[in-house]
Design brief:
Elements (H helix, E strand, L loop, with lengths): L19 H26 L5 E7 L4 H16 L4 E8 L10 H15 L2 E6 H11 L7 H20 L8 H8 L7 E3 L18 H9 L28 H14 L14
Parallel strand pairs: 1-2, 2-3, 3-4
Helix pairs in contact: 1-2, 2-3, 7-8
Length: about 270
Amino acid sequence: GKAFKPDNFVFGNSGAGNNWAKGHYTEGAEIVEQAIDVVRKEAEGSGHVQGFQIAHSLGGGTGSGLGTLLLLKIRDAYPDRLTKTYSIYPSPKVSDTVVEPYNAILATHQLLENADQVYCIDNEALYSIVTNLLKEDAPTFSFMNYLISQVQMGVTASLRFSGQLNGDLRKLGVNLIPFPRLHFFNIAQAPILSPKNSGYTKLFIQELTKQVWSGKQFYSNVPIEDGKFLTASMHYRGKVSTQETDENLEKVQASKAEDFVEWIPNNIK
């Protein structure tokens, strides 16, 4: 497509063969300098780089091995810039490789140290959203990628458009991360509508807020009742009234008080 500059593609002769070590130390290490040069070229052409965004899966060798190596190199080259990753975690039901858990564990160790924000995504959760909520018989990867792109757009909307609240990636991190190593976010998106029905649906802030907190639209298959929320941040896009969003968030805070830890007051932003 036209989303990426053809000059910026970096290719290797062989894949990592679903092996984290090959992606991190051998095959990946051979081409990572080329990749960093491309990143550097783009960063130098930019007026103000706020951070870097990596989309990768942790089940294979290239996404987990080369992805975390690239993250490490970016951290070395730009220590004062934010790094955020959209990481597809392997799920037991939708698995095609035996070594996926090993690759994910090794990559997670790197994400703990070198990433500032990690958005956890799970193919199984996306699959169930598409089949149960959108009633699609044969979900395609391009449609699941579309769902992920909606969250990416929502998180960076405050950087790209002027709005009532001047938010940025650093503020998001400051509000959401109580301890530096606890930077793994569970994400949800509303509304999730089938493209066929999107023209017929009227949306209200109350309904959007309710959908996000229902638990059915989380991008990771994590049962809410098994733990507690530390912090939460909600991004509304479009023409919305600040007063109405604040009122709805207050209702959420009151109704879900038991689902949040007590030692962080006012932890929904």
